[in-house]
Amino acid sequence: MQLIEDALAHQARLRPDRPAVTHLDFEAGHIPRHLEVTFGELHARAAAFAARLSAVVAPGQHVMLLHNSGVDFVVEFFGCLMAGAVPVPAPEPQIPYHRAAERLTRIVEDAGITAATAARQVAVADVVALSPRLSEVTWLGDAVPGETGPRRERRALRDDVAYLQYTSGSTGSPRGIEITHGNVLDEVDYFGAALGLDSESVLVNWAPVFHDLGLVLGVLVPLLRGGRIVTLSPQAFVRDPERWLRAISDFGGTHAAAPDFAYDLCLRRIPENRRAGLRLDTWRVAINGAEPVRAETVDRFTESFAPYGFRPDAMRPSYGLAECTLAVTTPPLHEMPGRVVADRDALAEGVVKPSPTGRTLVSCGRPIPGINVSIVSPDTREQLPEDAVGEIRVTGWGVARGFHGDPARMTELNTGDLGFFHEGELYVTGRLKDVIIVRGQNYHPVDLEQVAERADPQIRPGCLAAFQDGDVVGMVCEVRGNQTEAELAEIATTIQREISETFQLKLDVIALVQPGSVPKTSSGKVRRNECGRRLAAGELRVRHRVERTAVSARVSAAAAKPMLRFLLGRVVGIPVTQLDDHVPFADYGLDSKGAHELAGELERLLGTAVPSSMVFDYPTISDLAKALESE
């Protein structure tokens, strides 16, 4: 077959009355409304949409589809292909609308969008009002019902662009990746076979369809292999992760895929008393990808849900990226992925050295047939041997044609990801451009984030960003709860202490922010550089912030006073509310031992030497705060 729509037509002829898409709509409450189409109905509705679309767009033009999930998206996506148009999936507008307007405007301008559809017309109207460029787009919700255009001439080249996959990326503006019909059909053949997907498979998906994981694995691969997909929106999953597992249980789901944070969310948000009745024995393949895979998550999820039928060999950490359509590596069926416990210091130097107390890394499997993966030196571009860390390079059928607007064709993909091969399996260690370098020592942000995450249970897992801006190394953490200033100061102190003790590294700035503040890509990857930029620009909702410069621990007196109250209160055992900024420390019973302890706490928090003599020379909170400000 030459075209994606040919593959759908083939499935519609084979099994016209078999369910193709079942969407679980939770908008009305906990009991979902089922919206379902068969393969025959899907093909017919897509053809009708194509006829309508042909009245307003010409073959080859780009049509933006603003959906997170649902039957309508699937119909419109295939309908665009039937009309010869190029679908461009994009996220439904979310508050704050000005950010949504900025992103969508960039996509419209880059792709030359002429028409668009949307799942939420009211939200779209609010966003369009913020951008004159968006108002120039033909919104098909306002088109005349029933109006049709002439059928387009059939294209027959596998190398034609099927759709544009826009990535939010870790930095910079979104770029449109040109995915061809051949890319997708090969993905259906090779990745589908590697996962054991067939006409009896049921894939349950909540990942957004504007992301490669949600589109390619959540929609295209299972449908074009004759399988059924059961979908729910990302919002429905995040509000109640039990819905995902219940759908797998109720529909006999055989396949599902999600980033690591989703499995962790299930562990945290589905207590044992809500797991009764789950039947996960049909779940054969649980893809864990799109962000770093944590051994702790894999182990805890497997152990916690084993009593409900989840099998250890179902969890399959995998590696992929949109520039390669989706999949690059995955473990072979029924093969447990390997593990390596590597010395952190050696790993930072690019060498894999076993260590019982090192960083535990989980294998992402082996290259899919037809995909070639190598590890190369970022400097010389020479291929590296096993157990050497370098940049991951990919060649083969999955590599996209290129980026929209860039005439250069991609024949090989230098991913920007760091990793190594061990016994033929790929291990991903981090991002090349995210590496933090201090005094010639390399630190992977994910390592720092995982240590900081354990500092306090109120720190949201997966919602931290370690970044470097020039000489400044910072950490931003989302924190739940309604802590006092003193309690937030204690969390920041613990983060600094844990990072210092684990890595011998001092953070220049620690910012504790409101949940939802840390920027992420559409797939949930933390945008570390963007997070640092927003922090510097004052665009994050900061609850507590501690800073030190590269040469001193100078802090404002206003910022130092609550910190000193908290530390003094902890040392002398007196509630913060009973401390006065102008009462001598000795009046609170602070002796020489306490002075050393207070100075030590200040050192750990500020990341610089604080002699005990300062506590004696400046014997009140007010005096010491002013001294710290002037140091």
Automatic annotation (TrEMBL):
Keywords: Fatty acid metabolism, Ligase, Lipid metabolism, Phosphopantetheine, Phosphoprotein. The keyword Ligase applies. InterPro entries: ACP-like_sf, AMP-bd_C, AMP-bd_C_sf, AMP-binding_CS, AMP-dep_synth/lig_dom, ANL_N_sf, FAAL/FAAC, PKS_PP-bd. Residues 558-631 form the Carrier domain. SMART domains: PKS_PP (SM00823), PKS_PP_betabranch (SM01294). Pfam families: AMP-binding, AMP-dom_DIP2-like, PP-binding. Gene3D superfamilies: 3.30.300.30, ACP-like (1.10.1200.10), N-terminal domain of ligase-like (3.40.50.12780). It comes from the Bacteria. GO terms for molecular function: adenylyltransferase activity; ligase activity; phosphopantetheine binding. GO terms for cellular component: plasma membrane. One of its GO terms (biological process) is Actinobacterium-type cell wall biogenesis. Belongs to the ATP-dependent AMP-binding enzyme family. PANTHER family: DISCO-INTERACTING PROTEIN 2, DISCO-INTERACTING PROTEIN 2 DIP2 -RELATED. This is Acyl-CoA synthetase (AMP-forming)/AMP-acid ligase II/acyl carrier protein. It comes from Streptosporangium saharense.
